[in-house]
Amino acid sequence: MGAKAVIRDVGRVLGMDFGEVDRIAKLVPNELKISLDKAIDTVPELKQMAAASDEKGQLIAHARKLEGLSRHASVHAAAVIVAPSDLTDFVPLYKSPKDGRISTQFDGETCDELGLLKMDFLGLKELSLMDEAVRLVRLRISDFDLEKIPWDDRATFDLFGRGETIGVFQFESSGMREYLSQLKPDNIEDIIAMNALYRPGPMEMIPSYIARKHGEESVTYDHPALEPILADTFGVLVYQEQVMQVAQALAGLSLGEAYIMIKAIGKKKPEEMAKMKKAFIDGCLANGVDRKTADKVFAAVEVFSGYGFNRSHSAPYSEVAYKNAYLKANYPKEYMAASLTIARNNTDTLAVLLDGCRRMEIPVLPPDANESTLNFTPTDEGIRYGLAAIKNVGEGAAQSIVDTRIAEGPFTTLFEFCERIDLRAVNRRVVESLTAAGALDSLEGHRAQKMEALELALKAAGKAQEDRERGQISLFDGGGSSELIVQELPEVEEWSEREKLAKERDLLGLYISSHPLEPYARDLKNFARPLSEIDGQLDGARLRVGGLVEEVRKLFDRRDKPFAFVTLKDLNDTGDIAFFSEAFANHQQLLVEGETILVEGRVCERNGRLSLQADSALPLKSARAELTESVTVSLPYHKVGDPLLRRLRQLCERYTGDCELWLRLQNGGEQDMMVRSKTIRVNPCDDLLIGIEEQIGPHSIWLQPKRQIAVSSSATPVKYRA
Q1: How far is Cα 462 from Cα 458, in angstroms, rounded to an integer?
Q2: Are 309 and 199 part of one and the same domain?
């Protein structure tokens, strides 16, 4: 546990107020691997707390004792321990209660010291992803060969430069994507360098690397001997191999000695570091390097060595990333379909990829028993959802349905579907899930009807299949195959949109046929900022956001008052919202999973992440009525005429209300003019807004929120009777 994390954990156990504990944690400087002792020596307020005998002093005392302990069990991404006999003869083991995975209780360094062999076998899902993407591409281009792609593809580097690397190995994080959009890489060396730099320690040099690449910062070297080593990376220390070459060039160390030096520094053992520093400095002085330069270079090496990455690792990682990006840039449907297939059992990853498809304007079509295959499949219209990705269906049932359809043709009714499928592979639960997920929508009737008729359909189908297996033939079959007597679907009420979408979400992990926020898209645009903007705000900034309540985690503070952390999702992103006791008490009725809300508050840092601390909230369905100050209609000047103005007036008088009405007359390149009606005030209901857009065109209306009344500087407000 690090300094900030241990303060927050201890504070929670002690039942202290979350806001106060969060404030104390933020006093710890944002320095890599800073210790609590160092933070206390640096920050006077922390020093004062540590010396106190009150609750805060108790917090700091407990935190100092627990700092550095393992908070949970973590597993190396690739390391495998090999022993001459049973592992339990040499090391205690741990079995994860979550997935049953077995790992050593000792860390890698301890296993090394015991003499056990540690080998890294890195299995990457991205390799399986590329195999699936290539298979899909070859359905269209039979001779496609991923090993023969060009390494200077402009579309690929443009994709990196836009930061559109969701689904690209090692380049998916928001921070990495932000740096890529600044770097604008134009060769594979830039990709390799970014892969190595985006790690604790070297990450601090990324802004300098970017500035030097674009000529915004001069490239300098502490010693002429460093230029041939660092020229390819603009004078920035990027790879461990460069550190070894620096030690060889300046201090005269062999590459083997340089490697030992890097490892010793990485272990942070004072006696070994002192020994290595002396060897480095003595070598530099012997080679004519002055003491000041030697100290400066060693300081840079010391910071880098603990976290630096090998070029020999970064290059093959970047090769995989480049191939990922090449497929995504040049074969987007195939690549995203393959990505969705690989992630089909992980709803969190699936949601991120589907957001990526939305941004790429690739429609993801709902599952369909008459169109879908086992996996996600690219089509002319978009990407068709795979049957095996539906919860409770599974590969065996999905493949059985696809095989039946291919052999005997499409399905038309629920009763026919149940009779034709193999009920040993496709049971009742599977058919229920297919129905609720919308995979049987192409069959006659709506979902509620099919669900109501399912028991009768399965009984009739089961009897028909049993008869066929016993060789019994109906007198009415004429010696041919059995035909199911046509059944009528019951007359029942359709599911509500909310119920239908909730079932989709449960079975698919997301919304496909529609989205609960689609009716409020206009209001989110007018009254709220995207949740993605939380990360770009300063601590304490005021913000209003909106979205769908995905999760509510209710807790109690030390006064036994409830508060909650809410996960909110808009049409593109997800954000964390904290409702502390007062805000929670005022808005508890809105904090229900599936509710759509608008939230106002201030941005605060928590556990190294920015989130929103809520002050107020209201239902999205009432946001427009409560928050609209005025309705602005944008009208190109050349369209202004009596007939159009007359129609607009009649429409606005039909929907009167309390909001001001403004016309924005667009004068092309000249300054626009704002005209306010003195006689007409309107109700910004859907009927009015849709009616105006039918007269003028889409995107012609802006709803001005209350408390943010500001006229664009490019327009001149004019009081005029309309």
Answers
A1: 6
A2: yes
CA distance 460 to 470: 16
Tens-place pLDDT, residues 244-286: 999 999 999 998 888 888 877 766 666 777 888 899 999 999 9
Sign of CA dihedral 105, 108, 113, 117: positive
Residue 522 shares a structural domain with residue 560? yes
- Residue ending a domain, choose from 458, 484, 508: 508
* Tokens 């709220």, located at residue: 528
Tell me, yes or no, whether 654 and 576 share the same domain.
no
> Whose structure tokens read 């956001």?
545
Q: Is residue 98 part of a domain?
A: yes
Picking from 390, 395, 374, 398, the residue whose alpha carbon sits closest to that of residue 433 is 390
CA–CA separation, 653 and 635 (whole Å): 18
Tally of domains in the chain: 6
Burial of 132 (0-12, 13-18, 19+ CB in 10 A): buried
How many residues does the structure list for the chain? 722
For the record, the structure tokens of 503 come out as 């079932």
Q: Token digits for 605? A: 């840092």
- What SS3 class is residue 153? coil
Instruction: Say how far apart CA 388 and CA 401 lie, in whole Å.
Output: 10
pLDDT in tens, 277-315: 899 999 999 999 999 999 999 988 887 766 778 899 999
What is the extent of the structural domain holding 161? 146-314
Closest residue by Cα to residue 553 from 543, 568, 538, 563 = 563
Phi and psi, residue 32, nearest 5°: -60, 125
- Domain-embedded: residue 151: yes
Q: For the chain, what percent of residues have pLDDT higher than 90?
A: 54
Q: Are 169 and 160 in contact (CB under 8 A)?
A: no
Asked if residue 293 lies in contact with residue 223, where contact means CB atoms within 8 angstroms, the answer is yes
Residue 721 near residue 678 (C-beta atoms within 8 A): yes
* Alpha-carbon dihedral sign for residues 695, 697, 703, 709: negative
Q: Alpha helix locations (H) across 27-122?
A: 36-42, 44-51, 55-66, 108-113
**How far from the centroid of its chain's Cα atoms is residue 180's Cα?**
17
The answer on 274 and 157 residing in a single domain is yes
Counting DSSP H helices and E strands in the chain, the numbers are: 29, 17
User: Is 590 within the bounds of a domain?
Assistant: yes
**Closest CA relative to residue 574, chosen from 626, 533, 615, 614:** 533
- Whether residue 335 is contained in a domain is answered as no
Same domain, 629 and 616: no
In whole angstroms, what is the distance from residue 166 CA to residue 336 CA?
10
Distances (CA, A) of 461 to 418, 530, 661: 6, 50, 63
